[in-house]
Each structure stands twice: as C-alpha cells, then as structure tokens.
Amino acid sequence: MNVPGNLRYTEDHEWVLVKNGIATVGITDYAQSELGDIVFVELPEEESETAQGEPFGTIEAVKAVSDLIAPISGEVIEVNASLDDEPEAVNSDPYGAGWMIKVKMSDESEVDNLLSPESYSEMIDK
Hints:
Elements: E1 8-9, E2 14-19, E3 22-27, H1 29-35, E4 38-42, E5 49-50, E6 55-61, E7 65-69, E8 74-79, H2 89-92, E9 101-105, H3 117-124
Antiparallel strand pairs: 1-2, 2-3, 3-9, 4-6, 5-8, 6-7, 8-9
C-alpha cells in the first residue's frame, strides 16, 4: 500500500496534507482498495464547517457506503467537484486527482491528534 511520508492519517483511513493553514483531505490508498470500485462521493457544501472526528460526507462503492470522517475542524473552502463526474479518480489517484475537500483549519494543533505515516502503516499492516 502507498503511504506517502508527507501526509498525516486518521484511524478511519483519511489523509491530510497541511500547507499554510489549509488541510487537503482525501481517503487513503488502503481505504479505496478495501472499498472497491467507487461509484459516488457526497461532499459538503463550500463554506460549511467540519469537526474533527465527525462525518463530512459519504463515499459509495459497489459493495458498501461509508461515512467520510473529518480529520480536522474548520471551514470547507473548496470541494473537488470533478468527483461528481469521475468518482473513480479516488481509486486511480487517491492522493492526487482523488482529493475531496480543502479546509481552512480552525485549530492547527488538531494535526497532533493524527497518525504519522509510520503509525498508519503499522496499523494497516496488522
């Protein structure tokens, strides 16, 4: 499984890239492989709020529907609208074209609650 070293992770298999107070969020390579072929992604509206540990949307695969859990609290400033037409981008490029939302973080210290790449790798290898 691909676990980029420049990201932080949640136990719910979301990833976060933090840059200048903005968190880009998606699901991990492991999560997309477990879900299978993704057919629909429901994301929040721009300007809505996320709360760390709370659902911010859903992802639907051929075999399951799962909640997307916010890794960070803040205001959604951008949503990946291309996933409306190409949800399969989450399967083919989960860390690139398959990103989901960008959040202006309200509390940057929340990043400290997230897993390091090493911790996440250990978790999924069990």
